[in-house]
């Protein structure tokens, strides 16, 4: 059960995972309010697998609005600090250490932590208790693909409650580096570095300095030292110009050449080293130029696959670090240069492997399914936390706050729902000015940098008639309604943004039935491997050679419970030879100048 260091861009040596067996119980009647109320722990659960999963040892997929966790651990108080960190807990968590409340957090997909130094027992023997509330019927919380019905139906899957990412302890100095952020600026071969201190407050009399070293392999790129002012550092590191033989072009990150720059960050007080950790960054730019997506200043055709990020035995939680790496490798082996992580804020270890192996990622906010003030407030808070967590990953190239008007179902009629989409678009652009944003992917676009279209018509002739070379964009938006939905809202005509087919395919074919799934589901169906392969290749060929599209996303990566429209079975074995899939996906599009 190896998950690797849970926060790969701020990696310290002194940490301890608290995964493994915890005491566990359900609390269906919400009888317990404090750890002292619990006298009996009838179950043992394997963290970080959710209780609905088989890997957890519990495997109960019933409705359980509240559950409790507890485990013992050993750590002795010292002159430093001890931080307790949670990767993700779905949905609302309260954490006690030795019976004292340490932290509360709401949001099922984002990390939180607590400084527990003052709560530690001098004996070194400690107890952590976690209460998790996750109402299965609450449609006003961001829940993504988690079903609100008892049995999974249509395109929704089993629920994931409780702890589903790594829990760990970290020892840090009394004053330490709490957050960092990297911002590449390819045009000037510069990298922005921001850092914030945590722990003991520092004032103008404190002599704190931060040293940042960047390397590419054995080549030293920069070693800079900055004075810490008011607990912060905010500087650009400019890579020196070597002249006509400019090796800096070799440093650009892309799926074809995922070049990472290794970083070491040290914090000094006076002349004394007090904190040190490893990180990494990359030189990579993404933006929109007229109707094309641009990577490192060049037009780039996005060839993506939709990835739900579920596993049969562990649900939203990954089986381990190797499974996350394998998913990245499989997407690349099938010829895709990117994935659209659908309705899930993925584990940071997946983003680490996407950074290291070279795979682009669209990050999408899990949807709520009611439009209420509470739903929007929850979404704004959790989306902001997710962006803050993943801002520095070079693989993340697009942010998607809404999908298919989920949570805002009356966009054409209710002004407040339009305002919600527009507000989230502008908030996202405010929090990150370096990446494109899709306000609402699929249809009913308003504020957006890319117009994403979802069209599951399996008839390739229909697709040619809708999107072929003889179709002008104004005809598309005035007359075509894939899925019966208008593509752009009134007042938001197409302004020349890139148009992408961000969901299509969805061919159900299941040569390896998944245990417990009674009836498979898909947008269309194939009966044999031969028919499946032919349908897939014809669809991909049609879309690749449709000049209107500056990118596409095929549905989907792997079978997910009853939704059997993956290119892979649920256990990640291929339905077609990977080389055959890759040949179709990577087919040349040579008649569009500058597009690779």
Please summarize what this structure is.
The chain is α/β, with parallel strands linked by helices and about 600 residues long. The protein has 8 helices and 33 strands.
What is the H level of CATH, i.e. the homologous superfamily of one domain? Answer: Galactose-binding domain-like
**Low-pLDDT residue intervals, each spanning 5 or more residues:** 591-596
Mean pLDDT: 93
Helix count, DSSP H or I runs of 4 or more residues:
8
Q: What proportion of the residues is helical, as a percent range?
A: 10-25%
Biggest sheet: strand arrangement = 26-25-24-23-33-30-29
CATH domain class name of one domain: Mainly Beta
Gyration radius, rounded? 24 Å
Number of strand elements: 33
Q: What is the structural class?
A: alpha/beta
Distance between the termini: 39 Å
* Biggest sheet overview: 7 strands, parallel
CATH architecture of one domain: Sandwich
Under CATH, the topology of one domain can be stated as: Jelly Rolls
Shape: globular
The fraction of residues assigned to DSSP E strands is: 25-35%
GO molecular function, one term: hydrolase activity
Protein name: Glycoside hydrolase family 2
Family: Belongs to the glycosyl hydrolase 2 family.
Keywords: Hydrolase
